[in-house]
């Protein structure tokens, strides 16, 4: 893909980097390594940009596309291919708001999400050392602190987002499945 090879035309699916923070972080790493020409070449390949990291994965799983960028393979019989040097990882953060409407339900959910059952079935690389044998925290290339640090600098993250919009265009399409909006439950 880095050489603009025409045999990649029309077979690449990706999430919009200007719509998803994790994909924004991934694409920023690509630009730091390969330059903005890489993004131009990706766009010239007529890559399919979509809302939600599930869409690129689903397009590859269905055979509509051959390459998915910035998506997970969990739950599909897809091969995960890397260049052998990069591994992006971070732990998801969760919390309960001090004025939560249903704090007991929130605590129940939190207890379930960190349970052995949920971590073993829903999380590819759990931070729980008693469950995960992959030990993602010990992979030096993972640079576990990079994503949170990237997201803390909101001005720079938004600058990246706007630059990607110039190359790729504004985000289009329906919100990701499961998107509940600013006020979930209100009509």
UniProtKB/TrEMBL annotation:
Keywords: Signal. It comes from the Eukaryota. The keyword Signal applies. Gene3D superfamilies: Periplasmic binding protein-like II (3.40.190.10). InterPro entries: SBP. This is Extracellular solute-binding protein. It comes from Phytophthora fragariae.
């Amino acid at each position: 893909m880095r050489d603009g090879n025409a045999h990649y035309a029309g077979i690449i699916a990706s999430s919009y980097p200007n719509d998803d923070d994790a994909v924004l972080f991934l694409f920023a790493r690509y630009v730091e390594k390969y330059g903005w020409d890489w993004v131009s070449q990706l766009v010239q390949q007529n890559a399919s940009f979509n809302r939600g990291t599930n869409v690129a994965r689903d397009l590859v799983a269905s055979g509509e596309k051959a390459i998915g960028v910035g998506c997970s393979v969990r739950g599909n019989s897809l091969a995960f291919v890397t260049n052998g040097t990069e591994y992006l990882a971070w732990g998801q953060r969760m919390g309960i708001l001090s004025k939560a409407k249903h704090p007991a339900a929130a605590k129940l959910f939190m207890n379930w999400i960190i349970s052995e059952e949920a971590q073993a079935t829903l999380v590819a690389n759990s931070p729980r050392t008693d469950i995960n044998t992959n030990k993602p925290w010990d992979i030096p290339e993972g640079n576990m602190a990079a994503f949170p640090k990237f997201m803390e600098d909101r001005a720079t993250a938004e600058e990246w987002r706007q630059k990607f919009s110039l190359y790729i265009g504004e985000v289009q399409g329906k919100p990701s499945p499961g998107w509940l909006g600013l006020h979930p439950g209100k009509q």
